[in-house]
Amino acid sequence: MNAPLPGLPPVLALGQPRLTAGFDLAARLDRRSHLAVHGPPAQLTETELTTLAETVTLRGRGGAGFPLARKLRAVGLAARRRGIRPAVVVNGCEGEPACRKDAVLLARAPHLVLDGALLAAEALDAATLVVGVTRRTAEESVLEALAERGLTDRRGRTLRARVVRLPERLVSGESSALLRAADGGPPLPPGRHAHASEEGLGGAPTLLSNTETFAQLALAAHLGADHYASSGTAAEPGTLLLTVSGAVPDPRVVEAPSGVPLAHVLRSCGAGPDLQAVLTGGYHGAWLDAPTAYAAAVSREGLASCGGSLGAGALLPLPAGTCPLGEAVRVAHWLAAESAGQCGPCRLGLPSVAGALADVVSGGGRSALETVRQAAGAVRGRGACAHPDGAARFTLTALSAFTDDLAAHVLGGGCGRPTLGALPLPLAAGATEGSPESGERLAVDWTLCEGHGLCAGLLPELVRLGPDGYPALAEAGVPTHLRGRALRAVRRCPALALRLDRELGREAGQGN
Q: Where is this region: Disordered (predicted)?
């Protein structure tokens, strides 16, 4: 079952489509078809645009949920105070394997996103527009859309527009990593925290928000506040884009009104009635047990009220036949390997969290469980970005959601179920250039290993020392960005016991 999501999953609209309007007519809405569906773009002043965003309670759709009106106001004030023209940045970098909504928008409705971004750029008198992406399909679609509008990065233009492509990694979606890459630096979060609205792209005040946020802004301007608020809840008007995968026949991107019952979304995507739980908000999100999930409403407020998270809109129902804690171990190892490698609490702490959780599943008892809680608590609030906080939340809510399974692993011989790989992760086998995984996996020749421990020091994201002093390897494959250090660990193994193996099993069939 361990298969990655398709680059562009099919789209399902529950109710009247808005963001996905016209998708039944064309695979991609070019400029002409976009105008036929959505009409000409609106033109609003900075005050009018800020008031509109405030009236419809528009919040960022990338995970943090920050009010857009506050960002608009802060950027405008900073630009006037400093006497400098600001920038607008669209964050379309989806590095998480469970999210595809922004990829679908950029590939199929790029002009709707640009309508919102240009609306903000004109209102703020911005000098620069940047769209950050991680996938080739999104890059090509946005470049074509910019060309259709006559927008370029040439000097002398009133507004210079360009696309920046980052590696397909989880940390690429962190806003400061995108700004750093757009300024020519490495696509990694910097060590210092700064507000983009004060000092962002090139040091200028910057309005930075998620792809869907700009598309929603364009819709609100086109429809008007009252019509926009005719869908969704009073507190969170409008529709939401969701990526639904896991225990469904086919992953889908779903547009639904805010406040729709989670049970209705799951049934509409083909999820069966015998689910164990639902992971809400993706791999930085939170687990809900099945009864809680079936009673939840899909909105930021509705999910938060029952311990869930809307996050970036990913929903992953978990089937009954798999070990839920084993699934959590797979993802925890992947999260550890996705570290930018800059912060000790992240680079060293997340592998400790994943390893301790693996010990729990393997029968490590109460001491292993206590180690998980301590390790997860130790990384929170101590990173250059939100990655360690999200990984800790994922792990700790798994312990809360699967109490019966946890007791079976801690006190008995386990839950008796295999780990099926129901949660999507990048597939190493057959990996291509630019793929998050290298197509290789670490392995140990136990007849040679002498427990020197050097590999754990060189590659803590994928190797740690077990209680006996011998290496314990992560279940995740080797990500491309860690391959160099993995090779170094292999070469420096004093006993020549560590090696990198190609993952041929999934290409040829697991039994061959």
A: 177-200
Q: What is the pLDDT of residues 236-267, one digit of tens each?
A: 999 999 999 999 999 999 999 999 999 999 99
Q: Max Cα separation, the chain?
A: 72
> Which one is the CATH code of 335-412: 1.10.287, 1.20.1440, 1.10.443, 2.60.120?
1.20.1440
Please give the Cα distance from 66 to 73 (Å, whole number): 13
CATH number of the 17-229 domain: 3.40.50.11540
Write the DSSP string, 371-396.
HHHHHHHHHTT-SSSSHHHHHHHHHH
What is the C-alpha separation between 58 and 55, in angstroms, rounded?
8
Strand pairing report for 463-465 and 471-473: antiparallel
pLDDT digits (tens, 9 = 90+) for 28-47: 999 999 999 999 988 999 99
pLDDT value for 475: 65
φ, ψ of residue 280 in degrees (nearest 5): -105, 135
- Helix ranges (H only) for 188-289 are 211-223, 225-228, 262-268
Which tokens go with 169?
């990694």
Res 510: pLDDT: 34
Helix axes 403-411, 349-361, angle to 10 degrees: 70
Which runs of consecutive H residues, i.e. helices, occur in 234-279?
262-268
Q: Is residue 170 within 8 Å of 189, Cβ to Cβ?
A: no
CA distances in angstroms from 24 to 33, 107, 161, 245, 350, listed in the order given:
12, 14, 29, 22, 43
Fold of 440-502: Alpha-Beta Plaits (3.30.70)
Query: Which position has the higher pLDDT, 161 or 187?
Result: 161
Which pair of tokens denotes residue 279? 């992971």
What the block records as the tokens of 82 is: 């400093």
C-alpha to C-alpha distance for 122 and 344, rounded to whole angstroms: 42
- The span from the CA of 437 to the CA of 431, in Å, is 6
| Gap between the Cα atoms of 132 and 53, Å rounded | 22
Pair 461, 482: CB distance under 8 Å: yes
Q: Give the global pTM.
A: 0.87
Report d(CA 256, CA 17) in Å as an integer. Answer: 8
Dihedral of CA atoms 101, 107, 110, 113 in degrees, nearest 10, equals 20
CATH code matching the domain that covers 246-319, chosen among 3.30.465.60, 3.40.50.720, 3.10.20.600, 3.40.50.1580 = 3.10.20.600
